[in-house]
Structure formats: structure tokens, C-alpha cells
């Protein structure tokens, strides 16, 4: 089969990405670490991060084994095995990426110290970050390929079904059950690691940060990143744990979710839509089905190759000493995205060429012929970029909203909080409209399959965006090391410059994270509904997939579902506060019990702080995560799949709003504080009278915003993804066994 | 027709309620006002409140006339006229209730001063509040009766249709269009006044409050309610404007919405459900239809009579000097509710007796025969009470959550905010579950009609709940007058005691407000869907009402809809802040320009503050309200009714969450501050070292929470009600004329 040969592109992309990641890993590691003090600090951070990830993975492996066993027993061995592969891939990417980040940070500091050259320093930081980016996309695709090889999924499994019993739709349940569940098992494996890395990491990083600040800045009046503060190493570990490993596995999950929901939707549409069109003689051919199934993976492979080009452009191009960092990073991203778009265009053209035009139009809803998937993908990419730009508008202090918050700090903390809240709330509307246009547009041009294409489009150059996103925390860490190693201020200036650009790119990255999570979960939701409404379609009860939201069971599900993200967010905020309090107590204890610590004569016990943060974060994440996983599963077995459908709709809608709200409010508070520090607010200058009161008010805003933007917001993405994935894995069971059905209540 | 004779109950209830309201009005007014200073202050408040309401009603009358004209031209003269009647009823109730509240406040102070008897003072305050309660229910029913008489709606209009063209379903559109639109025109009239009173009043009250506090407490260090503060009268006016007139018209609107959605649903179910059951020979008889149409109004009438009994119990029963205020108020409510429940039981029994049991069961979904509507109503009442109790749990300082917030104030303002936010977010889950159980339960027992019955049940004793809710701000005002008139502390103690109970009852009242708004809007949503899907049912495209939330247009609608309450809330918060800033400037100006003001030698210019608050609040409410009204209308004409259906679902779901979140977080911050003041937090005592810092942190929380709980939360109720009502009025037009249909996009 000629079309399948295209999978070679995927294999080539995986090998290329992994080889490049390995190259960048080892060449980064070979760079010099600098002074002994720098080595010492870097090693403390590295050991701390390693300790956390080991502790976390130990617990994950227990929970993961239980889940895998349950899946094997109650669902199928294929699903269980796919789950394990997913978990290994995601855990692997997180581990490698974080490892190199903890090697890269000190080497960035050293590069800045030795060369005093922004361009050269940027290359070191970006090379470190690129390992994570390449691993995320490479491992995700590797896992998908493995599953393809092991189970002969994608085309082979379908061939089986086709071979055994034609026409396929009479046996769609076999295809469906095996196919959907195995693939969603893979996604679930990625989800569970993402949950731990993102939620656990998010609690870790903010608990350490708040703990360090609350005692350090407020009580002991020592600056940030001061080595006398026992929590300072934990704070730096947190950046690696939350912002590197957490972000990486979060986007890996979105990437897998988008890709697989495209494959699943393609298959389901094939199985179900054909049914309703038999009367007109419009039947999807096997070749077209294959095109639909292969498109997502190959598109992802093409995107990955584009990213390798984009990344190596930045690593190899000669840079000036005072290079425009922002522009260079953007160039790398644009090159990656550009190659993705061109590759997708060719792919869309060739894969969907030569099929019956009427079938494409009537059955699949491809309004623009074989270019339809490409247009949908471009819509997704455009939406991601625009949402990022909107986030920047609301959170950067170059624009009115954040300036307004900074100004209102003059009137005290209450108005800082009030203004920030208002900004965050108002900022929900525009991104949602963009999302809506992209969803409706991609549907209008390429049917339900188009929505999945838009999601894949948004994530096709994920390797580049993750590289850029990871470079940020590496630079942040590098700055911390410079501070703690008493290097000259010039060094810090260079790392600060890199860090500042990282903050801007992070805002756009967050736009992509929220946008892609929304798209991925919405396609997963459609797959979910296909999976449980399929029989109704066959029986002729309904003639298209639908979820009736005024059905009381679904409506109640939607109401309860909408409350889940709120409850989850509230619990996470409390979790951060609790873990931070433990840290505060420990820092206070050390200040009291270790004499000479504040004079810099005695070394604080960094390890103990790291231990407290690790254990605290894992402990505090248990209940919120359990709630996220248990609610859909339990309610599915009690109230049935219609209820869970409503639950997912409600949860997705309210999580998107809360994620935008928390992300933008938190970002705006953070930058409002920086704006005041930069002297932007009229009449408020550092050192002058009244400055402290205004700055204190802004610090309250920043402290409130920290857990919102770095723990709650990102975790909400995971929440809806894991809820959708787990429901998709279980839907066949919900359909067969549920209490309401058994009691004939419905 | 014998059944229609039952409408005499309604007429009797209206006359009784209005007569009692008049009696209480005039007997309250006849009471003595006390010293000259008291009279002077009370008169200032009264004049201020009157000035605001006049200014507001002037603007409302312009906008209302335009809306009425548009309705008459584009919809029907009946709808326009019904709209005017609704607006007049709501405006009338708000006016009368607020007027007497501004007479009652000083009389309460005087009663406390003269008698030093809590029981007697309570009676004066409650008598004042009862006028509002009786007017709300009386005027709402009066308007409904007027419409009945004028248009012969309810049974006569249907008789017409029946007479002209049997069977009714072939001509359902005539029935539907006339009936639904006229009735929803009435509801829309009530909505528009509620919007102005609640949103405008909410901005007014918090702008004055924050303005007074920001300069008075923080800058000039004078206590609350100090007559030297120029904004203090405006602050007291605000209580009357926001908490009396605003709350009254809010609940009046819910009451009307619930009642009418019951009537509309009954009619639509009759018209549509019959269709699908013709094959089985299950046809709803005209007598059963009448029962369904009359039940809501008569139930409301019975409830009103019960409230008159409950209210007069408290006014006539002999009370001890140190009576248990809380228990007495509860008794009055329980008596009212009890009579409602018993009346409903009899009504349900007699009205639905003697109909075909199979029709009741199969067509209407009455699982418990003729008692079904009663069971649904009881479920609604129970849900309202339980949601109120849950609110109390999260906001009263007798329980853990608020104590936790108070404790975290020791660690600074940031953690106070963080904890309060977390509490508010977590508090969303339980009320939603209760709501869900009630919705599903009332549906399971009495079909879609049951959901409307539950809403009516919750509001059947609205006269009693509004009386209790209005008594709170009257007592609050009385305390302010006592303070400003330099009366003995004992007087203030009595009014404070009444005020404290008022705060607790207000929490439960808020539970009812949110619960009833949710129920009312959900029934309105069902009516909306019936109205635009009716034709599909006739054509056989669908066989039950449904709104497919995975239809892309509806899904995008739901996403955008969910963002509306967030944007609306953010805009309202900013509106309060803006209006408060104007007040701050004015107070600062007076302190600077009027010599001797802080020494108590010169009188501040209260009028100017009132003027600034009035104009500011009306100015600032324009854009948020315009957005609320314009979005559904414009998007209906562009994207069609499916989109608006999604919009409503999304908006209702997210508004319920935000309303619970803002209400509970705000209440908890408020009471956390009070808990600290009462000395409840360990190691934090008034006058001791460190108290001020803790208290300051709590004040930040309280200030942040104020606009959330008193402006945003209540306004969200109105937002979703007015969005649903206006969509219901316009749905027939959306269906006929929309751009997407015209361009054949869908």
C-alpha cells in the first residue's frame, strides 16, 4: 500500500528528532560549568530536582501499575499496554528534558560570565531547551509508532475488520471498541504523567516560591535568590519541576490527544457517517479512510522535521553580541511553523487527492475539496497565535490593562486585587471568540474531522514552542545561580534579558497551551459521543452525533461538571498554601536553630527544604487529582454515559474560562509589580517616599496571582484532558454497566 | 368553567396583600421619628434615595419606552403592552418598598431608643420590610391578573384557538407565538426594572461604601457611619437602593419568571407532546391543559395568602423584651412556607384529579399521579433551603472555612485573599449538586413541567423571604442613624443585634435568589427551545425537545455564552471601582475645601456625594447592561436560534458558578473580618500588638469581597434571567430572520 509508505516520514522524523536531542544533550553537558561555587549550587539544584522526580515517579509507578492492571483486567490488554507505553514516553520526555535543564542552567551562567555575549549565551540556553522540545514531539510520535507496530493499529487492524466482515459498519463496534480504547489508553498514559508533573510540579514550584518569599523577603528582608535563604534552592528546583517537566508533559499530552482524536474521529466518522449516506450511494472508500487515519500522524511527523530545521537554524546561525533575542526566537518558531504549514499543504493535497468529490463533500463535509484539512489546520495555528497575542495584551505592561492595575496599587492592595480580577474576567471574552471562530470555521470547512485537524495544526510545531518555553526557566535558573555565586552584575543583566524575553514567549506559549487543550478536548468529546451514540446511529434512533443538553440527566451533568474546575482550582490553591506554610515553618526553624545563617557564616540546610516541598506537593495533589479522575468514572457507572457527556461539556466550558481568567489575572499582577519596579507609574519611583506602600500592594497582587497562573491555570488544561481521556477509555463500559440503566430509572 | 373560579383565590390574594401592605405602610409612617437630628438625617437619606430612584426611573422610562415601541412594531402590540405592565409593576413595588424603608429606618432607631425593647423594635423593622415583601408578590400577581383580564390569556386565548381550529397542534404556532411572546413580554418588563435596580443599585451602594471607607477609615481615620464623612449619607442611601429596591425587583422578576415559565411550558408541552402521542391515542384534554395553565398562578396566590398569615403572626404575636430574633423571623417564614406547602398539596390534588392516568404518566411524565406537581414543588423548596444552609456554612464564622480565612489573615493580605478565593471556588460544588438533585428529581417526578413547579415552589413564599431580607437593611440603616444622632450605645446594640440576624438571613436569602434564578432560567430555557424547535417536532425531524451541544454552532454559542458572565462581572467590578474613585475625589475635595469639617464644626455637602453616586452608577451600568441585552439579540439575528440556545446554556452554567463563588467568597471575607473584630482568632485581640496588621489584612479581603457579593453576585442572577427572557421574546423572529440562514451557511 503506497500510502502507508508515508509512515516512513514519521519514522524518519522520530529518529531525526531523537538523534538531534541526544546531540544537543551531550554537547550541552560537555560545556564548562564555571567556578566551584557555581558547580556546587547547580549540583544542589540538580540533585534536588532529581530527588523530586524520583520520588514522584516512584509514586506514579505504583498508581500507574494499578491503573494498568485495572485496564488490562476490565478493558483489554491492548489498552493496558498502550497505557504503559504512553506513561513511559511522557515520563521519559519529562525526565530527559528536566535533567538537561539542570545541566544547562549553570552552563548558561558560565557562558554569560565568560563571553559577556548575549547571542552566545542565548544559544546555550536554547540548546538546553531544545532537548525538551525535541523529546516531547519525538517520544510522543515514537510511542504512536510503537503502538502502530505492536498492534498493527492504524490501517492493519482496520484491514482485519474489513477483511473479516464487509461492509465495515455492520461490525463497527469491534473496530470501535478495540481501536478507540487502545488509542485512548495511550493518551491516558500520557495524561497521568502530565497530571503528576503539572499538578505536583505546579504545587511544588509555588509552595517553594511563596515559602521563600514569605519568610525571606517579608520577614528577614533578604533579596530574592539569596543563598542565605534555605528555600532558595527549592525555589530554583521548582522552576525545573513545574515549568520544564510540567509544561513538557502537558504539551506532550495535548499533542498526543490531538493526534489520536484525529485518528479516532476519522475512524468513527467513517464507520458512522457512511451509514447515513448509504442510501445516496455515497460510501467512503477504504483508501479515503486510510488517508484520514494517516494524515494526523504524518502531519505531526512533517511538523517535527520542520521544528528540527527551525531549532538548528537558531543554533547554527551566527549571532551578534547584542542580538535581538526576541526576534531570533520568533524566527526559529516561524521557520518551524512555516515548514509545517507547507508540509501540511502538500500532505493534504496528495493524501486526499483522487477521492470521490461528492463523498468528500457530503459525507466528510470537506467544503474545499482535498485542501479542507489544510485550511482547518491553518485556522488552528492562527487561533493559537491570536490567543497568545491577546494574552500578551492583557498581561504585558506595555498595554493599558496591566498599567491600570499598577496604577491602582497606589490606592492599596484591595484595589490592586479588584482591578486584576476584573481584568482577568474581562479577558475571557476575546480568546473565546477566537476559539469559536476557529472551531466553527474548521468545522465548516472540513466537518468534525476539521476540528481535530485544527488541534493538530496548533500543535504541529510543538517541538519549537516547547523549546522556546523551556529556554525561559533555564535562563531564570541561570540568573539565580549568577546571584548566588556572587558573579558580576553584568552577568545577571544578560540572563535577565534572556529571562524577560522568556516571560513574553511564555505568555504566547500559554495561549497555545489553553487553545490546544480546548481543541484537543473538544475533539475527544466528539469521539466520546461517537463512541456511545454509535449504536443509536445504527439503530436509526438518531442520524447524527448529538448530546441533548436539555435532557435533564445531561443538564445536571453539565452543571456538576462546571463546578469541578472551580472545586479543583480551590483545592489546588489551598494545596499550595498548605505546602507553602510547611516551607515557611522550616525556613523559620532554620533561621532560629542554625546560628550564623543570616550572616552568611553557616550554610542553610537546602536538602530539607527540598524534601519538604517534594513530599508536601505530592501529598497535597492527591485529593484534587483523585477527584478529577474519580468523578467521571464513578458517575459514569452510576448515571451512565449521557451524564458523563454533560459532565465533560460543563467541565470543558468552565475550565477554559477559569484557565484564561487565572492565567491572565496572574500574569497581569506579576507584570504590574514589574512595571512599578521599572518606575513606569507616575509619581512612584524607587527610593522615593511612598514607593514602598505602592510596591507592597503590588506584591500582594503578585503573591495572589502566583498560584493562579502557575499552578491552577496549567492544571486546568490537564484536568479536562484527563477527564475526557478517561471517559473515552471507559465509555464502552459505562454504556454496558450503569446503575441508572440497571434500575430502569432513565 | 369551574376550574377558572379558582382564579378568585388569586384575586383575593392580590387584594389581601395590597391591603395589608397599605396598612403596614401607613401605620409605620404614623410612628414617631425621634429627635430633630434623627429626623434631619433620616430625611437626608430619604431625599437621597428618592433622588436616585427618580433619576433612575427617568432614564428607565426613556429606555423602556423605546423597547416597548420596538416590541409593538416588530413583535406585537400585546407584547409591548404586557412589557409596559411588567415594568410598571416592578417599578411600583421597588418604589413603594424603598419609600417605606426610608421611613421605617429612623422609626426603628426611635423605637429602640424609646423602648429599649428588642421585640418591639423588631416589629417596627419587620413591619417596614413586610411592605416590600407583600408588594413584590402582590404586584407581580396583580400584573399577571391584569394580563389575564386584558388579553384573556391563560384559558381564553387558548379557547379561541381551540374554537377556531381543532386540533390545536395544527395551529400551535398561533397559540405559541401569541401566548409565549405576550407572557414573556410581561416578564421582560419586570426584568428591565430589575436590571436597573439591581445593577445600578449594586454599583451605587458599593461605590458609596468603598468611597466612604477608602477616605474615611483609611485616610481620615474616622469610624464608619461618622457624620463628618460626606459620603456617609450616600452609603446609607445605598443600602436602600441596592439591598431594598434591588433585591425586591430581583425576586419579583424570579417570581414572575418562574410562574410564567410554568404557564408557557404547560402550554407548549400540551401543544407538542400530544403530537408524539397521538398514535397511542394519548391526548391531553382541554381540562388538563387548563389545570396546567392555572396551577402556577393559583399556587402563587395560595403562597401569598400563607405569607400574609406568616407576616401578621410576627406582627401580632406578643414578644418578650429579649426575644430570640432569629427564631421569630424563622417562625414567620416557616408558617408562610408551611401554608404554601399545604395549599399546594390540596391544589395539586384537586386540579390534577380525574384526568386520564395514562396521559398524566406518559405524556406529561407525572410519575406520582396528581401529586406530582406538589412533590416537584417541595423538592424546589427543599433545594432552596439546603442551598441557603450551605451558603451559611461557607460564610458564617461559626464554621471552619471562614475561621480559616480569618486565621490566614495573620500571614498577610495575600493569604487572606487566596484562602477566600479558594473557599469560594470550593463552595460551588455542593449547591450545584443540590440543584442537580432537585432538577433531576422534579423532572423524574413531573416531567419538564416539574422543573417549573420546583421554581414556583421555591418562590411561593417570596413575600415572606423578601420581608425578612428587607428588614436587614432597614436595621442596618437604623444603626447608622443611631450612630450619627449620637444616641446611647444601648440603642446601637439593639439595632446591631437585629442587623446581625439580618446578615444570617441574608445568606439564606441569597441561596434562594441563586437557586430560584437557576430554576427560573432553566425553565425559560426549555420554553425557548420548545418555541424554536416546535416546527421540527411537527415535521417529525425530532421527537423531543433537544439542543445538540456538539453541533458546532451551538457549541461555539455555549463557549461565548460562558464568557459573558465573566466579562459582565469584570465590567461591573471596574464600574464600582470607577464610581468609588469619583466619590473618593469628592470626599477629599470636601475635606480640603470646607474648613472645620473634620472637627465637626461645618456640615459636609451630603447632597453632592449622593448626586455623584447616582450619576456615576447609572453611567457605569450602561455598557455592561447593553452588552447583556445586545449579545443575545444581535447574535440571534446573525447566527440564528441554535447559537442563542448554546449561548444561554453557556451563560446560565457559568453565571451560576460565578454567582455562588462571588457570593460565598465575599460573604466569607466579610465575616472573617468580623470574626477577627470579635476576638475569635487566637492571639489576635483588639488593642494588643499586632492586631492592626491582622485586621488590615482582613479589611483588604472585605473590600475585595464587597463588590463581588453585593454587586456582581446578585447582578449575575439578573443577567441570565434577562438574557433568557429577551431571547424568548425574540425567538420567533430569530427563527424567521437570521443572516446565517439567509446566506445558507448552516
Structural write-up:
Two copies of one chain form a homodimer. The first copy, chain A, has 746 residues and is mainly α. In chain A, 83% of the residues lie in helices and 0% in strands. Chain A contains 21 helices and no strands. In chain A, helix 17 crosses helix 20. At the A-B interface, helix 13, helix 14, helix 16, helix 17 and helix 19 of A face helix 13, helix 14, helix 16, helix 17 and helix 19 of B.
Brief overview, please?
By secondary structure, chain A is an all-alpha fold. Chain A has 21 helices and no strands.
Number of strands of chain A: 0
| C-alpha termini separation of chain A | 48 Å
Mean pLDDT of chain A, nearest integer? Answer: 87
Q: Considering DSSP H and I runs of 4 or more, what fraction of the residues of chain A is helical? A: over 70%
Biggest chain pair interface: A-B, 76 and 75 residues
Query: What is the N-to-C succession of helices and strands of chain A?
Result: HHHHHHHHHHHHHHHHHHHHH
Query: Which structural class best describes the helix and strand composition of chain A?
Result: mainly alpha
Assembly form of the protein: homodimer
Described by strand count, sense and barrel closure, the largest sheet of chain A is: none
Shape, per Cα inertia axes of chain A: globular
Number of continuous helical runs of chain A:
21
Portion in beta strands of chain A: under 5%
CA-based gyration radius of chain A: 25 Å
Amino acid at each position: 500500500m503506497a500510502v502507508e509508505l508515508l509512515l516512513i516520514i514519521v519514522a524518519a522524523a522520530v529518529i531525526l528528532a531523537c538523534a538531534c536531542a541526544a546531540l544537543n544533550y551531550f554537547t550541552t553537558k560537555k560545556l564548562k560549568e564555571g567556578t566551584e561555587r557555581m558547580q556546587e549550587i547547580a549540583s544542589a539544584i540538580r540533585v534536588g530536582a532529581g530527588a523530586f522526580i524520583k520520588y514522584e515517579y516512584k509514586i506514579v509507578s505504583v498508581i500507574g501499575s494499578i491503573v494498568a492492571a485495572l485496564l488490562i483486567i476490565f478493558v483489554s490488554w491492548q489498552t493496558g499496554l498502550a497505557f504503559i507505553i504512553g506513561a513511559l514516553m511522557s515520563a521519559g520526555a519529562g525526565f530527559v528534558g528536566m535533567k538537561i535543564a539542570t545541566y544547562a542552567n549553570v552552563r548558561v551562567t558560565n557562558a554569560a560570565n565568560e563571553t559577556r555575549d548575549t547571542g552566545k549565551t542565548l544559544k546555550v540556553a536554547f540548546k538546553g531547551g531544545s532537548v525538551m522540545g525535541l523529546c516531547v514531539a519525538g517520544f510522543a510520535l515514537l510511542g504512536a509508532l510503537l503502538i502502530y507496530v505492536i498492534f498493527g493499529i492504524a490501517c492493519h487492524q482496520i484491514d482485519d475488520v474489513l477483511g473479516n466482515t464487509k461492509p465495515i459498519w455492520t461490525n463497527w463496534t469491534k473496530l470501535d471498541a478495540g481501536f478507540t480504547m487502545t488509542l485512548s489508553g495511550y493518551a491516558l498514559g500520557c495524561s497521568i504523567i502530565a497530571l503528576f508533573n503539572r499538578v505536583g510540579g505546579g504545587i511544588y514550584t509555588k509552595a517553594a516560591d511563596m515559602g521563600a518569599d514569605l519568610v525571606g523577603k517579608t520577614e528577614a528582608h533578604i533579596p530574592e535568590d539569596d543563598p542565605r535563604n534555605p528555600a532558595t534552592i527549592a525555589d530554583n528546583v521548582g522552576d525545573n519541576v513545574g515549568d520544564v517537566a510540567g509544561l513538557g508533559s502537558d504539551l506532550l499530552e495535548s499533542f498526543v490527544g490531538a493526534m489520536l482524536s484525529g485518528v479516532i474521529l476519522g475512524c468513527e466518522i467513517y464507520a458512522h457517517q457512511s451509514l447515513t449516506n448509504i442510501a445516496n450511494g455515497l460510501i467512503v472508500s477504504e483508501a479515503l479512510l486510510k488517508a484520514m487515519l494517516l494524515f494526523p500522524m504524518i502531519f505531526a511527523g512533517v511538523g517535527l522535521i520542520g521544528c528540527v530545521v527551525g531549532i538548528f537554524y537558531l543554533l547554527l546561525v551566527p549571532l551578534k553580541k547584542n542580538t535581538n533575542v526576541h526576534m531570533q526566537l520568533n524566527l526559529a518558531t516561524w521557520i518551524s511553523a512555516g515548514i509545517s504549514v507547507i508540509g501540511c499543504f502538500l500532505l493534504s493535497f496528495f493524501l486526499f487527492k483522487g477521492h470521490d468529490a461528492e463523498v468528500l463533500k457530503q459525507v466528510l463535509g470537506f467544503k474545499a475539496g482535498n485542501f479542507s484539512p489544510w485550511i482547518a489546520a491553518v485556522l488552528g495555528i492562527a487561533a493559537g497565535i491570536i490567543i497568545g497575542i491577546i494574552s500578551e495584551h492583557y498581561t504585558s505592561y506595555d498595554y493599558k490593562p496591566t498599567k491600570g492595575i499598577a496604577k491602582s496599587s497606589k490606592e492599596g492592595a484591595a484595589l490592586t486585587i479588584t482591578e486584576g480580577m476584573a481584568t482577568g474576567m474581562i479577558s475571557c471574552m476575546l480568546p473565546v471568540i477566537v476559539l469559536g471562530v476557529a472551531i466553527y470555521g474548521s468545522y465548516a470547512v472540513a466537518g468534525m474531522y476539521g476540528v481535530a485537524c485544527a488541534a493538530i495544526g496548533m500543535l504541529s510545531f510543538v517541538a519549537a514552542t516547547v523549546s522556546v518555553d523551556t529556554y525561559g526557566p533555564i535562563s531564570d535558573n541561570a540568573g539565580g545561580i549568577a546571584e548566588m555565586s556572587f558573579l558580576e552584575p553584568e552577568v545577571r543583566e544578560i540572563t535577565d534579558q534572556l529571562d524577560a524575553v522568556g516571560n513574553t514567549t511564555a505568555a504566547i506559549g500559554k495561549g497555545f497551551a489553553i487553545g490546544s487543550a480546548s481543541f484537543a478536548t473538544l475533539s475527544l468529546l466528539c469521539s466520546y459521543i461517537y463512541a456511545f451514540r454509535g449504536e443509536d446511529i445504527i439503530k436509526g434512533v438518531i442520524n447524527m452525533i448529538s448530546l441533548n443538553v436539555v435532557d435533564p440527566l445531561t443538564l445536571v451533568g453539565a452543571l456538576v461538571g462546571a463546578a469541578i474546575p472551580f472545586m479543583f482550582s480551590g483545592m489546588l490553591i489551598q494545596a499550595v498554601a498548605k505546602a507553602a506554610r510547611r516551607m515557611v515553618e522550616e525556613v523559620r526553624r532554620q533561621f532560629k536553630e542554625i546560628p550564623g545563617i543570616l550572616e552568611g557564616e553557616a550554610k542553610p540546610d537546602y536538602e530539607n527544604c527540598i524534601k519538604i516541598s517534594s513530599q508536601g506537593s505530592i501529598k497535597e495533589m492527591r485529593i484534587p487529582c483523585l477527584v478529577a479522575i474519580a468523578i467521571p468514572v464513578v458517575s459514569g457507572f452510576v448515571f451512565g454515559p449521557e451524564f458523563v457527556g454533560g459532565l465533560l461539556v460543563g467541565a470543558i466550558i468552565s475550565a477554559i474560562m477559569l484557565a484564561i481568567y487565572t492565567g491572565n489575572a496572574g500574569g497581569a499582577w506579576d507584570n504590574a509589580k514589574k512595571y512599578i519596579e521599572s518606575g513606569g507609574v507616575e509619581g512612584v519611583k524607587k527610593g522615593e517616599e511612598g514607593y514602598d506602600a505602592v510596591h507592597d500592594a503590588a506584591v500582594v497582587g503578585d503573591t495572589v496571582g502566583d498560584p493562579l497562573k502557575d499552578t491552577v491555570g496549567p492544571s486546568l488544561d490537564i484536568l479536562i484532558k484527563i477527564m475526557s481521556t478517561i471517559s473515552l477509555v471507559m465509555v464502552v463500559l459505562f454504556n454496558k454497566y450503569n446503575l441508572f440503566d440497571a434500575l430502569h430509572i432513565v
